[in-house]
Amino acid sequence: MSTFTRGFRGRRRGEDDRLPPGQYLAEDFPVLSAGPTPHVPLDRWEFTIDTEAGQTHRWTWRELTALPYEEPAVDIHCVTSWSKLGTTWRGVSLDVLFEDVETTADYALVHSYGGYTTNLPLDDLLDGKAWIAYRYEGEDLTPSHGGPARLLVPHLYFWKSAKWVRGIRLLTEDWPGFWETAGYHNYGDPWREQRYADD
Amino acid sequence: MQTDHLDGNALAGPLAEIFTADVSAAVSRCATCGLTGPVAALRVYDRAPGLVARCPGCEEVVLRLVRGPDAAWLDLRGAVSLRIPLGGANPGAVATDGGAAGGG
Amino acid sequence: MTRWRVARLVKVRDENPSARTLVFDVPGWPGHLAGQHVDVKLTAEDGYSARRSYSLAGPEGVELTVQRVPDGEVSPYLTLDMEPGDELELRGPVGGWFVWRPDGPAPVLLVAGGAGIVPLMAMVRARRAAGADTPFRLVYAVRSPERLYYADELARPDPGVSVSLAYTRRAPEGHPRPPGRLTAADLGPYGEADCYVCGPTGFVEAAAALLVELGHDPARIKTERFGPTGD
Q: How many domains does chain C divide into?
């Protein structure tokens, strides 16, 4: 039973039907981080996809940014309950990166510079649902927001959109990531409010 | 200069919800590099879905704490051991009324 | 386990144009050590709640000093809107490491940056309340005179406690030290002491490094950092 604090209102909650349950509208773009911000020089940056058969597909920064890009405008939803509507990004669709990848794996474990990991079904990365994003609102993605590049999977809670992304490992069995092993939901659909492991 | 973390002192409240002893005053040993020091001196990243405490020596994760509405998840894999001071020398940290902890 | 207690605001005191001390009545408060903090929870009528941590400012009772952060979520409420009689929830005291006990024999060096004065002032007050004769030295770095907390109390003589103010941006007329960031000279000369440093993260890192440079044993430097915004 909580005691109400008279006159306290806190952050404004939005009334937008684009807001999933339990979310409020953020005006700024909060920076969340579970550790120190890695700074990766672009000439040493790489992105890899490792298949369950042991094949590695590799892109340098120059190669990644030479690929055809998209400019998605998407709503993002952080599990700490802020949402930001209509954010615009530039990035390479994972459909492009997976074009030559042969796999029968069902699961993906995304890993980042700095050691962060997050897991999701491979299907959630394909068919126009996910990007490796390197520009935000017309500017290069800053290190505090995950630059030089982050995963962008806006239909799931934003912890799945790994900052400082370094690669994807394809697995035949699900392997829970950093927050998924610490009480957060394994899938994380904001519209079903799948925040915690029990939800 | 790293300016995005707090000290392990910030763990005192959230851990007091779980343990009767003051874990922030305990001495932990990092499972990665072996550095030993007070939990209160770990580097705590709190602007995240949970609290992440890292070793000030090697920056590996020592402790993670997530608080949901009905449960807390505590991961201590990064600590080999905790030496927890016990006894009557710490009156401020002893609060044994045992009431149900409040949710959000 | 520590549970949430209901705290009723009984008194407020403005410390300066942007900071206010709030005194709460908390039935069943078990007492605390100087340097400990409390977690505070505010719940809006629609159930939305926000939590913050604040250091206890006094040796007895629940007294918090809060700096108003423009555009903050909680601090504007606490420093402008909350009135005596209003209630919030509070958990504590917590934190048994960044504390000073009146029976501690070693000399004490306190280094405060801005709002970091609060738990250190609790130590100064606890020393006075206990009649302890432990030598205390307080170095208080503050942006400008309008940002000072506890100005009158710090100006009053307190035998055995030496206070030096280091203004970082603007000093009052006639202040002997020109404004500027904290230096080793402000903290020296070295004398064996238990050191307590509290302030914003960047300040704490810098001050702790200066103390080590002066020859202090890192194991005797205790720090408490505020978050990057901490509203």
A: 2
